[in-house]
């Protein structure tokens, strides 16, 4: 059983032109023995997020939504509240795309405070530099110690992101797209495997490659089981039913 902590639904752009629906995601998940997934939209636009709400609601026991927030939009708290009513478990920030800086706590505070109050997870797309440098997360994590923060892509394998996770036990590292397995092994050695989450970033990355990356790590089998699924499962406010033994396809 695998839990993918980073997938996308909706209109996907760049080199991709597909309009990905929930049925498509479930088909891909079944092909790779992925039982559950954290899913987000293709952008922070209201229409993309509404599409995500509609698609996630089709399979609420397998797909768990993260609302992609733009903190500059005046209606954003009302939008997140509606998403929560539909079973969403988190919010996603991507400052590079939406034109703000993670160091601007006053801008982020209404959303982060609401996430704390409602027990929502926070996924932060972290490039490892500029507006989303891991150092900004130190301020967020110290200001909101009860918040569970997922650093997307391990900040592209940034050692700074691992250091943030060392300093704050409310920080989790998601592994998608970064190719350097040695940095993931280093993270396991520094913070243990309990706060490292497998993610594929589908369709922007190859799922088989992302799975193989984790399965080829020089860490214990128990560590791999945690990274590939148990850790993400533990973040859910209520656990979905496990319909098969918790194992991996290798």
Structural commentary:
The chain is of the alpha/beta class. The chain is built from eleven helices and ten strands. The strands form two sheets. Strands 1-4-5-6-7-8-9-10 form an eight-stranded parallel β-sheet. It has a two-stranded antiparallel sheet with strand order 2-3. Strand 2 (10-11) and strand 3 form a beta hairpin.
Summarize the structure.
This protein has 250 residues and is an alpha/beta fold. Helices cover 43% and strands 17% of the residues. The longest helix has 15 residues, at 221-235.
Task: List the main descriptive attributes of the protein structure presented here.
single chain, 250 residues, 43% helix, alpha/beta, two-stranded antiparallel sheet, TIM Barrel, 10 strands, 8-stranded parallel beta sheet
Distance between the termini: 11 Å
Helix content: 40-55%
Percent strand equals 15-25%
CATH arch. level architecture:
Alpha-Beta Barrel
**Overall structural domain count:** 1
Order of strands in the sheet with most strands: 1-4-5-6-7-8-9-10
Average pLDDT metric: 91
- Structural class of the secondary elements? alpha/beta
What do we call the CATH topology? Answer: TIM Barrel
Question: What is the CATH superfamily label?
Answer: Metal-dependent hydrolases
Number of beta strands:
10
**Count of individual helical segments:** 11
Principal-axes shape call: globular
Low-confidence runs: none
What Rg do the Cα atoms give? 17 Å
The biggest sheet amounts to: 8 strands, parallel
* CATH class descriptor: Alpha Beta
The ordered string of helix (H) and strand (E) elements is EEEHEHEHEHHEHEHHEHEHH
């Amino acid at each position: 059983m695998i839990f993918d902590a980073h997938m996308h639904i909706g209109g996907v752009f760049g080199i991709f032109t597909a309009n990905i629906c929930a049925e498509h995601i479930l088909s891909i998940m079944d092909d790779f023995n992925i039982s559950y997934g954290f899913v987000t939209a293709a952008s922070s636009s209201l229409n993309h997020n509404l599409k995500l709400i509609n698609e996630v609601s089709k399979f609420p026991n397998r797909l768990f939504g993260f609302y992609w927030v733009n903190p500059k939009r005046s209606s954003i708290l009302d939008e997140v509240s509606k998403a929560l009513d539909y079973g969403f478990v988190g919010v996603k920030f991507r400052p590079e795309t939406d034109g703000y800086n993670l160091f601007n706590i006053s801008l982020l505070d209404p959303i982060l405070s609401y996430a704390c109050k409602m027990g929502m997870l926070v996924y932060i797309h972290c490039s490892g530099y500029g507006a989303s440098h891991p150092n900004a997360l130190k301020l967020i994590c110290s200001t909101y110690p009860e918040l569970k923060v997922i650093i997307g892509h391990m900040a592209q394998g940034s050692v700074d992101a691992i250091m943030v996770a060392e300093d704050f036990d409310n920080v989790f590292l998601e592994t998608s797209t970064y190719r350097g397995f040695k940095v993931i092994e280093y993270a396991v050695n520094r913070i243990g495997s309990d706060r490292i989450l497998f993610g594929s970033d589908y369709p922007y990355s190859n799922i088989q490659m992302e799975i193989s990356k984790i399965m080829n790590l020089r860490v214990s089998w128990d560590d791999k089981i945690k990274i590939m699924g148990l850790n993400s499962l533990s973040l859910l406010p209520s656990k979905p039913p496990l319909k098969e033994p918790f194992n991996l396809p290798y």
